[in-house]
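Structural prep section.
Before we set up the soaks we want a predicted structure of the protein with S-adenosylmethionine in place, mainly to decide which crystallisation condition to try first. Input record follows.
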Amino acid sequence: MDNVNQANFWQQRYESDSIGWDMGEVSPPLKAYIDQLPNGAKHDAILVPGAGNAYEVGYLYEQGFTNVTLVDFAPAPITDFAKRYPDFPKDQLVCADFFELSPNQYKFDWILEQTFFCAINPQRRDEYVQQMARLLKPKGKLVGLLFDRDFSGNQPPFGGHLEEYQQRFETHFAIEIMQPCYNSHPARQGSELFIKLRAK
Ligand SMILES: C[S@@+](CC[C@H](N)C(=O)[O-])C[C@H]1O[C@@H](n2cnc3c(N)ncnc32)[C@H](O)[C@@H]1O
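Run finished without errors. Recording the tokens verbatim:
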């Protein structure tokens, strides 16, 4: 399971097109969330970690959000994104390990979670919570989707449930929303929680 911590594990999946998690479009609940944001949010500093093919980053960019940072440690999807969005600022395309991002360099108003939490080794979940809190400005938000189901096997995706998430996240976040998602993509209907967590 340690190989999921390695960029090469993911890079090989992109190279062999074994990307079963990829929806090929912006996640409907995240699109709905983005669509209701006020115009004043268009210059928020936003991070999408473990972004992969980054449909959410593309959508934010298309809607006029100017300060979106894409992070992934596999180079293949970033190269592909840069081809699809040649005008996207290159300094906002970051090929790096999320856990090694320095809060001295990066601080965000909000962070978008989309099938990144489920991709990391479950033993690193507390580290994920701490790193998310470190990368947010005071009272910044972690918004997105978490699976509310189990998966078999010791390869990603790794599942989980509301009670576990509540316990882990409330150490560093006030839980404003953590509830079953009503507008999931049909393939994920009934298996996702929508979250909006505020850094303490
Ligand atoms: C399951 S994929 C999800 C991609 C995308 N969010 C989506 O929904 O299509 C997980 C992504 O996280 C990236 N990833 C995993 N661990 C990472 C880490 N520690 N730092 C940066 N990226 C990571 C992988 O390279 C992969 O692109």
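Observations: Strands lie at 46-49, 68-72, 93-95, 108-113, 136-147, 173-180, 192-199.
Flagged for discussion at group meeting.
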